[in-house]
Design a protein that fits this description.
By secondary structure, the protein is mainly α. The protein has helices at 34-61, 65-71, 81-93, 105-109, 116-130, 134-148, 156-167, 174-206, 221-242, 246-278.
C-alpha cells in the first residue's frame, strides 16, 4: 500500500502536490536544497516585477482597466489594487523631502491660512497644559507628522469609495466603487506627491527661477496642467469602468475631483492635525 501523507499545515490527507484544503505545497527533500532556496527568491523577484510593471503600464495607459478587470475576475496578471496602492505609498515614504500633504506646524497656526481657526486654539491649549514653548511644540509636531502623514493617506480610500458610490450608485456594488477608488488614489498620489515634487526638484536644481512655474497658487501654470491631467485620467477611468455617456462622465468626474480636492485640502489635513496633536 502507498504511504498516506498529510498536510504539515492543516493535517488534511494529501492526494497531489498541493493540499486541497489550504493550498500548502507537499514538502520534499528538494525543498531543503540551497539551490531551491535561491530559486524561490529569484521567482519572487521576477514574479513581482512582471506583475508590478504590467499593473503600472495598465494604470498609466488605460486608467480604470485594472479595476474593471479585477472586479470581473481577471486578476492573475495584475498586482492586487490595494497592494499596488501600498507599494505607491511605500515609494512615497522613501522620499522624505517630498512632503506632499505633510504640512508644517507653522502653516497650520499661520493666521493667513484658514487652518488657524481650529489649529491655534488646540495649540494654545497644548502649550498651557504641557507648559512648553510654541517652538518646542512645533518641533514635536513636525517630528511626529513625518511618521503620521504618509500612512494616514489610507483614510482617503473610504472617502473616495463613498464619493464614487454617491455619483455612480446605480452602476456597481460598493466593493467595485472601492476598488476603483483605490486605483484612482494610487494614480493621484503618483502624480501629486511623487512625480510633481520630483519635477520641481530637478527643474529648480537646473534653473532656480523655475520655482515660479510651480508656485503654490491655484492659477500657477503647473497647477492648471496638473489639475487638467488629473481630470483627464478620472474621466477616462470612470468612462471605462462605468460606461456612461460622455457628458455624464465628464460632469461627474469634475464633481468627483472637486470634492476629492476638498477632502485632501480640508478634511485630511484637519484629521491629520487632530490626530498628531492628540498623541503629543
Amino acid at each position: 500500500m502507498e504511504n498516506i501523507t498529510y498536510c504539515k499545515n492543516c493535517s488534511q490527507q494529501l492526494t497531489g502536490k498541493f493540499c486541497s484544503n489550504c493550498g500548502e505545497k507537499v514538502y520534499t527533500n528538494h525543498d531543503k536544497n540551497i539551490g531551491h532556496f535561491f530559486e524561490e527568491g529569484f521567482h519572487f523577484i521576477t514574479h513581482f516585477d512582471g506583475k508590478f510593471f504590467t499593473t503600472l503600464k495598465t494604470v498609466i495607459t488605460k486608467p480604470g482597466q485594472l479595476s474593471l478587470d479585477y472586479c470581473n475576475g481577471v486578476r492573475k496578471k495584475y498586482f492586487k489594487p490595494l497592494s499596488f496602492f501600498l507599494v505607491v505609498v511605500v515609494l512615497y515614504l522613501l522620499f522624505p523631502k517630498f512632503q506632499g500633504l505633510n504640512m508644517a506646524f507653522s502653516t497650520y497656526v499661520n493666521k493667513e491660512y484658514k487652518y488657524a481657526a481650529y489649529a491655534l486654539p488646540i495649540a494654545k491649549n497644548k502649550i498651557a497644559v504641557q507648559k512648553i514653548s510654541g517652538n518646542e511644540l512645533a518641533e514635536h509636531y513636525n517630528a511626529r507628522s513625518e511618521k503620521f502623514a504618509k500612512p494616514f493617506l489610507l483614510i482617503l480610500l473610504p472617502f473616495s469609495a463613498i464619493l464614487l458610490w454617491i455619483l455612480f450608485f446605480k452602476r456597481k456594488l460598493f466593493f467595485d466603487h472601492f476598488v476603483l477608488g483605490v486605483e484612482l488614489n494610487a494614480i493621484l498620489i503618483c502624480i501629486q506627491f511623487l512625480i510633481a515634487p520630483l519635477l520641481y526638484t530637478i527643474s529648480t536644481a537646473i534653473y532656480s527661477p523655475a520655482a515660479n512655474f510651480f508656485a503654490d497658487d491655484n492659477l500657477s501654470p503647473f497647477f492648471i496642467i496638473e489639475t487638467s491631467l488629473l481630470l483627464f485620467i478620472i474621466v477616462k477611468a470612470t468612462k471605462k469602468f462605468y460606461n456612461q455617456n460622455w457628458w455624464w462622465t465628464i460632469s461627474k468626474s469634475v464633481l468627483f475631483l472637486s470634492l476629492y480636492m476638498f477632502i485632501i485640502i480640508d478634511i485630511y489635513k484637519m484629521l491629520l492635525y487632530f490626530s498628531i496633536m492628540l498623541f503629543l
